[in-house]
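To assess whether ligand presence alters the predicted conformation, the chain was also submitted together with S-adenosylmethionine. Input:
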Amino acid sequence: MQALVRCLDLFCGAGGASLGLCRAGFDVTGVDINPQPRYICRKFIRGDALAQDLTGFDFVWASPPCQHYSGMSGCRNGLRETYPDLIGPVRDMLTTWGGPWIIENVMGAPLRNPVVLCGEMFGLKTYRHRQFESNLPLTAPPHPGFRKNKSLFIFIKKGWLARFVHTRLTFPAKVSKKP
Ligand SMILES: C[S@@+](CC[C@H](N)C(=O)[O-])C[C@H]1O[C@@H](n2cnc3c(N)ncnc32)[C@H](O)[C@@H]1O
């Protein structure tokens, strides 16, 4: 039997990325600094991803915390700086290691030559974009798009319809209150 590719999922959380990697046939070990009692795969190491020994792994996936780069962190002065900026240190660590790796993060994160993927590219009803940087060549499937616009259009139409019905129902009552 062929041995599975040994994959390390750094910053694994409960294992959203780990699950995809398992489904793709990888033998996954997750690493997170916090306990993850609901971690989805069997092998979990609690510890600092940046101190992790990468020896013996064939592939490393890393999803460093995104709050430092997220648009939401711009909503209050100084908030962004309260979150760690780990992409540079993670890239340095993976480059020094030398094996194949992918770093995933939100739009706006300083990834180099990233590929952008969207849930809709994979048939999901999720119009959400994420960036992926790698030392492997990555390509993206075609982006079907427009679902967001379509639902916005339906929302506008429904909003207009609701306002129309609301006006028709309430206007006579308002008129009758006038002297
Ligand atoms: C973006 S979430 C991970 C989401 C996960 N990859 C998924 O697909 O569900 C970031 C995770 O990094 C963890 N984390 C933050 N700093 C860490 C560190 N220095 N070492 C390891 N894990 C860390 C957090 O506990 C959190 O679970």
